[in-house]
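Re-run with default settings, no changes from the original entry. Doing this only to confirm the output is reproducible before filing.
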Amino acid sequence: MQENFRGRKMQKMYDLSSKFNTFYSSNVVLSQTVQAELYDKKDLNIQRLKD
């Protein structure tokens, strides 16, 4: 490990952005099918409230 300017040990930095992006796209973002179903339900509820 390297030492910083105060003589303390520095840990390595790891780039985990690709793993975070993979997790986000596969576990957080809803599929297009589910999104479309939710939009349809939203539109149906808006129409129901207007009637």
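DSSP finds two helices and two strands in the chain. The longest helix spans residues 32-50.
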